[in-house]
Amino acid sequence: MKKLKLKGTPSKVHKHTAFIGGMFNSQLEVSKFEGASIRTVSGIRGIVKKPSPPTLTPPPPPQDNDYVDTNQTFVFPHLELGSEAQWPVLLGGPAPNALGTAYVQYFLLDDPAWPYTDFSYATVQLADATDPGGPTAADFDLAPFRARGGKLLQYHGLADALIATSSSVYFYTHVLRALRPRGLALADWYRFFLVPGMQHCGGGVRDAPWYFAGAGQAGMLPTPGVHGVPGFEDPRHDALRALMAWVEGGVVPEGIVATKFRNDTVADGVVRQRLLCPYPSTPVYEGGDVDSAGSFRCGAVL
User: What is the model's pLDDT at position 133?
Assistant: First the structure.
């Protein structure tokens, strides 16, 4: 299991902050996932499983739509239902995407001629053992980060088909398991948001609200010079401002509002907005306009 390492270079807004989204998941993580996916390209079989809520009990056995190998060893999670629009990027070609094969060729083996047909579980084991480039986040003890006053705001799109959404759920859950037995709660320093309909880092399917000024999102809009969330420049709608308010003012982000601009063009106005809730809570409809974030509250638990 390869994931972003916090002590690398997450974007810093403050010396005690970290802002993580799909844009900051190391490309090496994508590579190791895609290398693992070589065995499953021809048999995707649904690739859907609802994320499990945080728990201190041992995780359930891997599902057969996750990537598992020898002795049912979990390697990487499935893709989510709703991410199909991005499947062609990694899974639609006659051969695996170079994001996976190039990692093995140039990082792991230093052998540009390595053929992807030689991939096996031994490739994964070698990557785990040697960890070239150091992207492995196997230490879930973030207590030192918390002790320094760190604040962590993480998000992941549920329609992301480049990095499986459940990889972030896995990370959050394992941090919880590492710290809660020591009486260290996560809610006052670590907030994780799932974004329904958002693809990798940004963009969405079926007019799903996805824009909240996350890393790189402004550059995905066709309108030049956009910064923040035009018309909604406040911590409720802007994830970066939310992180700043948390660090500098102690205001915990209880929810973030995602916006969908018509045709992804600011001048065309807003199609809808939707409330994003800190995991494992989910939005609950209270009545009123379904396209208004004010019609929802955070309450139900996954």
Answer: 87
